[in-house]
Amino acid sequence: MITRNVFLALSRSAWATHAARIWGLRFGARRFVAGETVETAIEAVRELNALGIKATLDHLGESVTDAKTASEMAECCFRTLDAIRSAGVDSNLSLKLTQIGLDVDRGLCRTHLGRILDRAREYGNFVRIDMEGYAHNEATLSLFEELRAIYGETVGAVIQAYLYKSEADVERLSVHSPNLRFVKGAYKESPEVAYPDKADVDRNFVRLVEAHAKRGHYAAIATHDEAIIARAIEFALCNGIPKTAFEFQMLYGIRPELQRRLADDGYTVRVYVPFGDDWYGYFMRRLAERPANVWFVLKSMRKS
Ligand code: FDA
């Protein structure tokens, strides 16, 4: 728990983020990040597609505090959608609202998101709005609701099982028949808003997915937890939910053998493929999830 908190605190450090950009992909980050350019990321997607696995590309970026950077980040999203289309790979796009200006001005963020969704709709593609820390939760859900009403199935959102409010949020969003990604939650949250105990988070994850699926809405089950995956498969079988009504999602570099096994069994599997030079916060969250990764990092530091 202490190690987790240290990495989550480090993930928010502005100086370390800046230093990481200068150093480039180091200290084992390459295991979780598919390079710094869109070309290398597209290559990673091609390799996944060859195994029957779909992707969602994320040009890394978050916590932007000025309008100029937010516009540059929106441009990166356009370029990613263009690259997916011209390469003909099977991938959609994931983005974070603080990357395109949520902390600068809601209206600016709304404008960027609308333009990105216009492009995605034109290409017949899909954009998933990642969920960030609790402070951004409500603003993210309300923008999603606003844009879902305009862009329909071009846009999806994320629900974090560690938040007490998520059950009510799934209920509230159900009027939109949304495509929701379910995750456990990767940020450091207070026990006032989130279950501190992992067993409660796991139980809530299952409850939320089952409630959503029973309503007949599309679920992206984003976890590497084999017990939860096995339970979802059993639930689908027992309730006559077809394989086309849900997909499994995992992160690039994590449990690749499980990704392949599920794809070979005929399930839709989508891997979240992050790329770009703003890899530091993402990498620290991956270390926080699994302190054993620190040994892997120390080994790669010895080699570099
Ligand atoms: P759990 O942490 O219980 O891990 C289960 C098993 O998975 C572990 O025993 C281990 O084998 C493996 N594992 C998990 N994490 C690992 C790691 N870092 N390194 C190596 N092995 C690991 N969060 C969020 O707050 N907002 C979001 O928008 C998203 N988006 C998102 C998309 C996708 C596709 C995924 C898979 C995850 C996210 N997350 C997220 C992250 C999520 O909240 C969560 O932190 C991680 O998925 C880890 O939790 P698990 O569900 O895998 O379970």
Which series of helices and strands comes N to C?
A: HHHEHEHEHEHEHEHEHEHH
- How far the N terminus sits from the C terminus, by CA atoms, comes to 29 Å
Count of DSSP strands? 8
Number of domains: 1
CATH class: Alpha Beta
Based on CA atoms alone, the radius of gyration comes out at 18 Å
Low-pLDDT stretches: none
Bound molecules: dihydroflavine-adenine dinucleotide
**On the 0-100 scale, what is the average pLDDT?**
92
CATH names the topology as TIM Barrel
Biggest sheet, open or closed, and with what strands and sense?
Answer: 8 strands, parallel, barrel
CATH architecture: Alpha-Beta Barrel
Task: Tell me the fraction of residues in β-strands, as a range.
Answer: 5-15%
Organism: Cohnella suwonensis
Keywords: FAD, Flavoprotein, Nucleotide-binding, Oxidoreductase, Proline metabolism
EC number: 1.5.5.2
Catalytic activity: L-proline + a quinone = (S)-1-pyrroline-5-carboxylate + a quinol + H(+)
Sum up the structure in keywords.
8-stranded parallel barrel, TIM Barrel, 13% strand, 304 residues, 51% helix, alpha/beta, binds dihydroflavine-adenine dinucleotide, globular
What does it look like?
With 304 residues, the chain is of the alpha/beta class. It has one domain: TIM Barrel (Alpha-Beta Barrel). The protein is 51% helix and 13% strand. It is built from twelve helices and eight strands. It has helices at residues 2-11, 14-23, 38-50, 67-87, 106-122, 137-151, 166-173, 198-214, 226-238, 256-264, 280-289, 293-303; strands spanning 54-59, 91-95, 127-129, 155-160, 180-183, 219-222, 246-251, 269-275. It has an eight-stranded parallel β-barrel with strand order 1-2-3-4-5-6-7-8, surrounded by seven helices. Strand 3, helix 6 and strand 4 form a beta-alpha-beta unit. Helix 5 (106-122) packs parallel to helix 6 (137-151) and helix 7 (166-173) packs parallel to helix 8. The protein is globular and about 50 Å long. 42% of the residues are buried. The mean pLDDT is 92. Dihydroflavine-adenine dinucleotide binds at residues 130-131, 158, 160, 183-187, 222-225, 249-251, 254-255, 272, 286, 289-290, 293. Its EC number is 1.5.5.2. Residues 42-297 form the Proline dehydrogenase domain. Its cofactor is FAD. Pfam families: Pro_dh (PF01619). This is proline dehydrogenase.
